[in-house]
Amino acid sequence: MTNEPQEKTTGASPLSAEASTPARLYGALGDGKDHFKVDQTNAAALDEILPGMRLIVPDNRACLRRMVATAADLGIRQYIDLGSGLPDQPPNLHEVAQRTVKDARFIYVDNDPMVCTHGRALLQGGGVTMIEADARDIDALYRTYELLSVIETGRPVCVVLGAILHFFTDDEVKQVMEALDDFLAPGSLLLVTHATSDQPHYQPEQVQAARLAYEEQTGARLYLRSVQQIADLVLPGCVPLRPGLVTTAAWHPDYEYGPAQIPPAPYFMAVAAQVRHDVENRQYFLLDAARKAEQ
User: Fold this and answer.
1) Is Transferase included in the keywords of this UniProt record (predicted)?
2) Burial code of 24-53, b = ≥16 C-beta within 10 A, e = fewer?
């Protein structure tokens, strides 16, 4: 993908010169290379409305790297990144995990066909794959042969929900969390970063203006939530690891993958939580169902 579109389309398609997509705008707000001039323009406009917006992506990426490194230190060997976007910013999360757990298996999941096509071309090395699927439909995802040929559902899995749940309604978040609770084995980890409306450094009018501008730029609805609302949706049935639900910059900033050179961005909250429950090992049942679906 180049920095200039090769053709025009309408709406917010991946090749549109008129609008951004969340994945491309996310890259433009950080150090990504796979976006267009319109995304750079929109990122600059957001940063003007809410100064410091360009810090969000580097801060969020750094936090997720620290979280995945922590999961690897705990010995987790299986990872699923839901709504991953393009894995185009080394070290990518699978690289972080595999530095500690050499044979870690990592699945990136995104519902954007262009992101998946380009992502598959970027991914090199064993134990890593990318699946085109909707993170809202965990039941369908867990019945795909692509996932079940890689993930052993009876063993702990680290599920990354990085900067994605704020695109879901409350009901959709609850459905995702309930479905994950059904499928994840005890000892699994959920890694969550989420945009928050609790912004002590800005006026509510600024936060609202930035949200509306983002929605107009991308066509995607953005659900900013208070810290308490995030906790109520994400943490029931889970046991948070220290330091609990905090800003991304405050989540173990001194860890090995800490972003010493990145100023903190106060827009996202972060939490790592352990799933503790009894779960039926449906590996063979689900694998058989997926094989039949492929026929």
Assistant:
1) yes
2) bbbbbbbebebbbebbbebbeebbebbeeb
